[in-house]
Amino acid sequence: FHSFERWLTPGLGVSELEKAILNISGETEKLANYTAHGLSTLQTAITELSGLTLQNRVALDMILASQGGVCTILNVTCCMYVDHSGELLTDIH
């Protein structure tokens, strides 16, 4: 009897499906917004941390300049790279 009723009134369950789809769509949009906000916050933290790291490195290099610098003392090749392009955030938005 239930299947006959659905056949007779096909719109009976469509409303519930539409609500479910809208709910899923809304939750997906919230998740995308939370993710974008989280990535933006992380990018801000990375920018601040890279600035602090560079300041500390400059100060340490100045202190150790008489001994040849940090890289000479540690006997390593120094290289530092921090992505400031913002491409990831641009792609998310």
TrEMBL record:
A Pfam family: TLV_coat
Keywords tagged on the record: Disulfide bond
Name assigned to this protein: ERVV2 protein
Organism: Nyctibius grandis (Great potoo)
Organismal lineage: Eukaryota, Metazoa, Chordata, Craniata, Vertebrata
